[in-house]
């Protein structure tokens, strides 16, 4: 278009206005043409860059089971849309159900032990007041026996009769029996207190077992729930690798299939690095996708990925070869579709063209707008052939 305009100007000057061509005029027109076409192209590429290197991308999840077992049922058909949380397949839950039942029985027994230990502690604590009452009664009886013995001794000093001696002997015997009763009551109280301490320790032990078994039961229930593989998002399963009876193991090298998440469809477009100096997140984008001729898709710049694989060096024992160091001078730009409903219906890996409209040089945006619309209609007649990467 620019060349046609330039040629038209030259024809008007020499054919219509009949200006005599001289060396100075020809040189001036050449310089003016270079600046006119080159300047517009420079402003255009910096203000509304356009590229044919783009592809629609979606997150892909490898369906690796958390537990091992045989596939019992497959509920999702390959390449059929499912919603987040829909059941994809089931692993035979019988072994994990057995574990849940076993640990559940252990938990019930542990809780019963706690109830039994609480009852034993309550009984032991009840025996302590009884033992204390018996001890108090025995001490009172002992004091009475000592008093009676002292009275008998006082009487014997006054009256040396045989009856006094008998009373003294009887009082001494009663005092000895009272002392023995006190010792026995003290021993009973100590035993009751020791039994209470043992019951309290047994209760603590029983109570400490319950959380551990509850944790085991939660783990067993979690493993049982993992026998049902759910869809991690809205999308579809492709590349099913299982049939009913297939043995699955929780290894990333042996996935059951591949899940394509369509809820996060975006575009990765590649531009020369020097064309992205004015590109900012939020800039408007127009896109044409090869599988959809005649349609124009709108989007926004998410971010520019300021890195390229050319600058990445793998940790090896070999010194990087300077002759092989270099870059293709391209940066990738992530673009989000403006309409999420449209984005979810697009296929992954679709190529096409994208034009970014920055806040600079808006007068040149029309060039990219015309170009992208021409590409949209040309898709009906011109086949798209992917160019191999250089």
UniProtKB/TrEMBL annotation:
Coiled-coil annotation reads: 130-202
- Pfam families the UniProt entry points to: BSH_RND (PF25917)
Q: Which InterPro entries match?
A: MdtA-like_BSH, MFP
Which UniProt key words apply to this protein?
Answer: Coiled coil, Membrane, Transmembrane, Transmembrane helix
Instruction: Spell out where the chain crosses the membrane.
Output: 24-44
This protein's source sits in the domain of life called Bacteria
What the entry lists under SUPFAM superfamilies is as follows: HlyD-like secretion proteins
Pinpoint the Multidrug resistance protein MdtA-like barrel-sandwich hybrid domain residues.
61-247
PANTHER family recorded: INNER MEMBRANE PROTEIN YIAV-RELATED, MEMBRANE FUSION SUBUNIT OF EMRAB-TOLC MULTIDRUG EFFLUX PUMP
Q: What's this protein's name?
A: Biotin/lipoyl-binding protein
Q: Which organism is it from?
A: Bradyrhizobium septentrionale
């Amino acid at each position: 278009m620019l060349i046609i305009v330039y040629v038209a100007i030259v024809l008007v000057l020499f054919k219509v206005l009949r200006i005599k061509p001289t060396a100075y005029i020809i040189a001036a027109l050449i310089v003016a043409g270079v600046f006119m076409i080159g300047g517009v192209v420079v402003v255009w590429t910096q203000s509304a860059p356009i590229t044919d290197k783009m592809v629609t991308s979606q997150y892909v999840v490898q369906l690796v089971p958390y537990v091992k077992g045989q596939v019992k049922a497959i509920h999702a058909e390959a390449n059929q849309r499912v919603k987040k949380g829909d059941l994809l397949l089931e692993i035979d839950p019988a072994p994990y159900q057995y574990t849940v039942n076993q640990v559940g029985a252990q938990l019930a027994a542990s809780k019963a032990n706690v109830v039994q230990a609480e009852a034993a502690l309550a009984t032991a604590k009840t025996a302590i007041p009884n033992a204390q009452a018996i001890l108090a009664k025995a001490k009172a009886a002992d004091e009475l026996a000592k008093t009676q013995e002292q009275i008998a001794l006082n009487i014997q000093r006054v009256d040396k009769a045989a009856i006094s001696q008998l009373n003294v002997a009887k009082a001494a015997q009663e005092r000895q029996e009272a002392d023995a009763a006190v010792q026995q009551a003290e021993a009973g109280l100590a035993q009751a207190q020791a039994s209470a301490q043992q019951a309290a320790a047994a209760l603590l032990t029983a109570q400490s077992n319950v959380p551990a078994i509850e944790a085991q039961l939660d783990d067993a229930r979690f493993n049982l729930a993992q026998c049902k593989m759910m869809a991690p998002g809205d999308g579809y399963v492709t590349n099913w690798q299982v049939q009913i009876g297939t043995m699955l193991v929780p290894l990333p090298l042996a996935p059951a299939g591949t899940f394509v998440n369509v809820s996060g469809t975006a575009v990765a477009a590649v531009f020369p690095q020097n064309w992205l100096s004015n590109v900012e997140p939020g800039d408007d984008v127009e896109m044409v996708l090869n599988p959809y001729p005649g349609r124009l898709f709108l989007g926004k710049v998410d971010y520019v990925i300021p890195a390229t694989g050319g600058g990445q060096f793998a940790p090896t024992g070999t010194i990087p070869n300077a002759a092989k160091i270099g870059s293709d001078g391209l940066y990738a730009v992530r673009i989000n579709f403006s309409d999420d409903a449209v984005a979810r219906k697009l296929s992954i890996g679709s190529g096409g063209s994208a034009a970014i409209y920055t806040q600079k040089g808006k007068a040149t945006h029309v060039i990219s707008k015309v170009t992208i619309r021409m590409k949209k209609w040309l898709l009906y007649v011109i086949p798209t052939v992917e160019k191999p990467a250089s």
